[in-house]
Design a protein that fits this description.
Keywords: Signal, Transport. The chain has 439 residues and is of the alpha/beta class. It is 42% helix and 12% strand. It has helices at residues 10-16, 19-22, 25-29, 52-62, 77-89, 105-110, 119-126, 131-135, 159-165, 175-185, 197-209, 234-247, 261-269, 281-291, 335-345, 348-358, 371-376, 380-389, 399-409, 421-433; strands at residues 41-46, 67-72, 97-100, 138-139, 142-143, 146-151, 154-158, 188-190, 273-278, 303-306, 322-328.
């Protein structure tokens, strides 16, 4: 692959224009320091403070082979991408290990900013990993991120609402069925309609569930101007129809167009909440709300879950996919020590500990056979199934522009048109990538 091709393009230069200004000379001069004691000093850029205890545990196990210091990234995926991109553009040697939101990995890999895992390392870090997390760790048939944890959304519902609507939740249900059930019962369908990455997750899941793609499958390694949008299709139209059907009806929670995961949870917790698509973290969040007095003690008794809704009746849904991979910076002064640290940070023991404390599902299948995991996450089978059948968002070095175009084209959900939205969004994607249009 031509690693530098993306970075030489104008859109990439815009992102990194302030890289050297953002990083002080003092920061760069400290790169690769061994702390004066011969122990490789590694910096792990983490996306969640709950990851820091894993660094402490691995340091103890390393017995001087390395020492990891955690550095917290911004709390949103776009901010994390920008900071890491700027540091790597400046060839910052302190980027030893980084927790990367998988959709942004190809951009960094294509620019030559990430160390390729060897074939032996790829085999090791692929063993026992569920299909979804593994698929999004690979770019151009090379592993650039070792799967750490995965994530998938479930359909959460109130048993009393489903029963009142006569909805059989023992069998797969469609979006149309839950919309109709919510209309019958005067309840809501909580979704993420905010113009950020959560909206892209929703659109991608709908399109993939309808048998379509946002980008043509042959576009993965293409130059920007040669990337073809595939969302102008029946699948893209179905996504627009379903999103509009929710947003323009009484089943829509208040302010759907600005709702993220937490707003969706609040809508579901309300008295008229009926259905919700969301990540598994909400289960422990319900507990916290009960303990804080915001919810009645028996709230969870009425809550159940099932697989993400189908778009086409009888065709399995393509479940949303999230998670984090662990990558090694291409300019790390201690790449071998960094790989050794990755082995510890993503071990089954570390994945279990992180899942138990942070609530984010592990990427390895064996985690879900653990009795403690099964007790804390009674929906473990649905999570495992979702991570197996999940559909990654487009794997492309131009993902930043692609998600930006989707977020513009499919927002706000209330004004979407099955006839116009897919075509307009496809044109926007291709126009932005060919530098003919701006987001």
């Amino acid at each position: 692959m031509t690693h530098k091709s993306v970075w030489d393009r104008g859109r990439a230069r815009r992102v990194a224009a302030g890289a050297l200004v953002a990083l002080s000379a003092a920061t760069l001069s400290a790169c690769g320091d061994d702390g004066g004691n011969g122990t490789p000093q590694l910096t792990w850029y983490i996306n969640n403070a709950a990851q820091e205890p894993l660094a402490t545990a691995c340091n103890e196990q390393a017995e001087g082979a390395y020492n990891i210091t955690a550095s917290l990234l911004p709390n949103n995926a776009a901010g994390q991408r920008e900071q890491i991109l700027r540091r790597l553009a400046a060839e910052d040697k302190t980027v030893d290990i980084v927790s990367i939101d998988p959709p942004y990995m190809p951009e960094l890999a294509n620019a030559g900013f990430l160390r390729e895992f060897t074939e032996e390392e790829r085999e090791e870090f692929s063993e026992g990993v569920l299909r979804g997390p593994l698929e999004q760790a690979i770019y151009e048939d090379t592993m650039f991120s070792a799967p750490f944890y995965g994530n998938t959304q479930l359909l959460w519902y109130k048993k009393s609402v489903a029963e009142e609507a006569g909805l059989d939740m023992e069998n797969p249900v469609t979006w149309d069925q839950i919309i109709e059930a919510a209309e019958q019962t005067g309840t809501t369908v909580a979704v993420q309609g905010r113009r950020n990455e959560s909206l892209m997750v929703w659109v991608n899941a709908l399109v993939e569930s309808a048998g379509g793609k946002i980008l043509d499958e042959d576009s993965e390694g293409a130059e920007a101007e040669d990337v073809e949008a595939a969302i102008s299709s029946e699948a893209g139209a179905e996504a627009a129809r379903i999103m509009n059907a929710i947003a323009a009806s009484e089943v829509s929670p208040p302010a759907l167009s600005t709702a993220g995961e937490e707003e969706s949870r609040a809508a579901f917790q309300a008295e008229n909440g009926g259905f919700m698509v969301n990540w598994p973290y909400v289960w422990s969040a319900f507990d916290a709300a009960v303990e804080g007095g915001a919810l009645p003690e028996d709230f969870k008794d009425d809550v159940a879950w099932t697989r993400y809704p189908q778009v086409v009746e009888g065709e399995e849904s393509a479940t949303p996919l999230g998670g984090i991979g662990l990558s090694v910076g291409a300019y790390s002064a201690n790449p071998d020590a960094a790989v050794e640290a990755v082995r510890c940070l993503r071990s089954p023991e570390s994945q279990k500990e992180y899942m138990m404390t942070a609530g984010d599902p592990g990427a390895s299948e064996e985690i879900y056979d653990d009795p403690e995991i099964q007790e804390q996450f009674p929906m473990f089978a649905e999570i495992r199934e979702g991570l197996t059948d999940a559909a990654p968002r487009p794997i492309s070095p131009y993902y930043g522009d692609v998600t930006g175009a989707i977020q513009e084209g499919y927002h706000p959900p209330r004004s979407l048109s099955p006839e116009r939205t897919p075509d307009a969004t496809a044109s926007l994607i291709e126009g932005v990538l060919s530098n003919d249009q701006l987001l």
